[in-house]
Amino acid sequence: MKRVVSISLGSSKRDHQVQVELLGEQFEISRLGVNGDFEEAVAKLKQLDGQVDAIGLGGIDVYVYAGDRRYAFKDGLRLMGAVKSTPVVDGSGLKNTLERETVTFLLQNTDIIKKGTRVLMVSAVDRFGMAEAFAAAECDVTFGDLIFTAGIPYPIKTLQELKEMAAKLLPEMTQLPFHMLYPTGEKQESRDEEKAQKFAPYYYDAEIIAGDFHFIKRYLPDKLNGQTIITNTTTAADVEFLRQNGAGRLVTTTPVFEGRSFGTNVIEGVLVVLLGKPSSEITPEDYLDIINKLDFRPKIIELDN
User: Fold this and answer.
1) Which of 209, 217, 244 is nearest to 233 (CA)?
2) 5 class by beta-carbon count within 10 Å (0-12 exposed, 13-18 middle, 19+ buried)
3) How far apart are CA 263 and CA 95, in angstroms?
4) What pLDDT is recorded for position 305?
5) Sign of the CA dihedral running 170, 78, 35, 256
6) Which of 53, 223, 242, 283 is deepest in the core (most CB within 10 A)?
7) Burial of residue 302 (number of CB atoms within 10 Å: 0-12, 13-18, 19+)
8) Which of 56, 52, 49, 58 is nearest to 82 (CA)?
9) For a pLDDT cut of 90, what percent of the chain falls above it?
10) Within 10 Å of residue 277's Cβ, how many Cβ atoms?
11) SS3 162
12) Is pTM beyond 0.70 here?
């Protein structure tokens, strides 16, 4: 049996383990949260190195993208560097392929996305494939990177402006401790009530709210008005939370196993094992080919019935 483990800086309350068969191969897939303890994450990564078939890094980005430029987070590189022999991934390969394909699938097969649909992406640089796909579909997209990451109430409206902002800010921001930019540990289990009120207009103006679930949840207003949420890493409790808070529909970009949609880092780890070659040698075409063989499609859950 192949083992894929995600070590996450997030809360251990979200830990989960499943066994699944994919393309005739048995997998044990698990997620282990360290409650924001960076040194514990390093220790667990060293412990797992050489003992499992692939490792995912959760609750943190290693690489983010804007246009053809890649930016690396100092903390993410340190975690990745703790692993010497086992393939280790952060999910960015799938964000550029599977999540891009999610938008295309919804555009071609549903009425969820169409020209002019108002979309709020809470952070686009960590999901640039999805951002480009929304722009290509001629949606009215608001990129909330400055709003949700830096608390600056400035909506970015074009990919070109996003690239320019990224070039100015990311070289320095990627050197900061990651917890300053993203909710880790117990922060993943709570909402920021003050900022939720402040950011509410961006949520209410959108028809689709897309991107990282923990950003979406942490600043979610008290009551939505039927918006579609496109995300992943959702548990059964998260689905109920969204239903109770007025979301109309949930679309998960990664497959659901036993009621849980795992993060892109976990699923990318599974695909690396199935592809059987170093992640540095895997192309977007490789990922798309294996995704099609697995018949991974977005899961659409209606919440307002």
Assistant:
1) 217
2) buried
3) 10
4) 59
5) positive
6) 242
7) exposed
8) 49
9) 80
10) 10
11) helix
12) yes
Which of 217, 187, 299 shows the shortest CA–CA distance to 253? 299
Top pLDDT among 83 and 261 is at 83
Strands (E), 10-124: 16-22, 25-33, 54-58, 63-66, 69-72, 88-89, 118-121
Tokens read off for 283: 């192309």
* Residue 129, CB-side half-sphere exposure with 13 Å CA sphere: 19
Can you give the pLDDT at residue 164? Answer: 95
Rounded average pLDDT over 229-248: 93
CA distances (Å), origin 280, targets 87, 88, 117, 161:
10, 10, 36, 29
What confidence tens digit (pLDDT) does each residue in 123-167 have? 999 999 999 999 999 999 999 999 998 888 899 999 999 999 999
Q: How confident is the model at residue 184 (pLDDT cuts 50, 70, 90)?
A: confident
All structural domains of the chain, each given as residue ranges with its CATH number in brackets, are 2-91+263-297 (no CATH), 98-256 (3.40.50)
- With left for phi above 0 and alpha for psi between -120 and 50, is residue 302 left, alpha or beta? beta
Instruction: Compute and round to an integer the Cα radius of gyration of the chain.
Output: 18
List, in sequence order, every residue forming a beta bridge with 57; answer none if it has no partner.
7
* 177 close to 78: Cβ distance less than 8 angstroms: no
pLDDT of residue 261: 87
What is the Cα–Cα distance from 108 to 58, expressed in whole angstroms? 31
Q: Do the bridges between strand 299-302 and strand 249-252 make them parallel or antiparallel, or are there none, so unpaired?
A: antiparallel
